[in-house]
Amino acid sequence: MLMNENKKIYFLAICGTAMASCAAMLKQKGYDVYGSDENLYPPMSTFLEDQNIPVMQGFDPAHLDPQPDLVVVGNVISRGNVEIEEILDKKIPYISLASALREFMIRGNRSFVVTGTHGKTTTSSMLAWVFESAGKDPGFMIGGIPENFGRGFQLGSGGDFILEGDEYDSAFFEKTAKFLQYLPDVGIINSVEFDHADIYKSLDDIKLAFKRFVNLVPRSGLLIVCGDDSESMDVSAKAFCPVETFGLNDENDWRAEKLQVSEGLMHFDVYHHNALLGNVALGALGKHNVKNALAVIAAANSAGITFEKIQQALKTFKGVKRRLELKGEAAGVEVYDDFGHHPTAIKETLDGFRLKYPDSGIWALFEPRSATTRRNIFQKEFIEVFDSADYVLLSPVNQPSKVGNDTLFSPELLAEDIRCKGKTAHYIETTDEMVKHIIKHVKRGDKVVTFSNGPFDKIHEKLIAALKNNS
After folding, report:
1. Which bin fits 108, alpha (ψ -120 to 50), beta or left (φ > 0)?
2. pTM as predicted
3. Three-state DSSP class for 56?
4. What is the DSSP letter of 226?
5. Which residues 6+ apart lie within 8 Å of 423 measured at CB?
């Protein structure tokens, strides 16, 4: 596919965050970009309007007349959609978003692909900031919004493109992991665990996708793998390229020692092949973020960025929206929002948060919303997840009808199991009742952290408003 052959590019389901970002980058490249979606609402509708990208409401075959040169199909689209049926009938060229990124953004650039069950967004954001701070003007496409940039994409002109490599599938016609489209020169694997229960049947299925990713890195490339994670090491065992490991264990090529929190920063010494390079002060807390930073250091080192420049960038890294994002403070109580939904990610986030606030009361609010957490796959594992919190509030499963009763996650049972460990835990049926419970029991200086991969019924706004009214 030659990029110059496609002048008019149409995005079907354009209001997804990644779809809108890709559309904006293609607009910057000079293409005539437009699209349609069923639901138009801020912030993406406003973003597309600011980018001067026309968006048509709803799905209608008439939107495809005159015929575009190429259609980018969002992964929310399935057979039966009136526009995709028109596209298939008329044989209009179409590709997935992942393939569009490959052809229009990645091909011709050096590709850095960050993968793993956890840490993808933070690590890719951190890596993009290190490259930017070093003056490399990288292109990037990230599933979240790095606070240092204020947006999740950048076209870049430096010849490097950084991607968050998602293992979720690409489109109804391309049922393979997105990261298999990204032509990796440098690949990072942070962790491999079971997730996405709606498309993967087992951990072995997940591992197969990662093994296929490993098989795409050329001999001249580099694979950077978490040596502390046995599954990551397993999927990387037959790599054809050089492999460098990172982590906290002594055998890693890149490792961290003397971890401590001081003045709101995570400090640690960095060793490469047992040689001390120096100390890093990181603007993100927790052992998991130390590992994320080690992966970034290894990738940046491979691109010729000096350790001194890496140190400077990591100290000024501001994090990612919805990754322990402070939403507001009222009556002496801080309210944070986190995208965490997998048990490992939630536990690591809370453990890191406790390091920063060892003496504060920490409230953890959890909404089982993802395809995996709606199911009882991790019912037992969740019992240990909230150990660093003092108070745990659990909401009902979001859209339980998507899961059979025999496999449905039980927040009621989880609350009971956590109480058996001597910790305060409650199952509360509505967010309004949750807010009332918190207002009744919260103390000045407490921290409230919400965990959900969705809006959680705007509980952050409700709680902050209630705290203000109650003060």
Report:
1. left
2. 0.84
3. strand
4. E
5. 386, 387, 389, 390, 391, 392
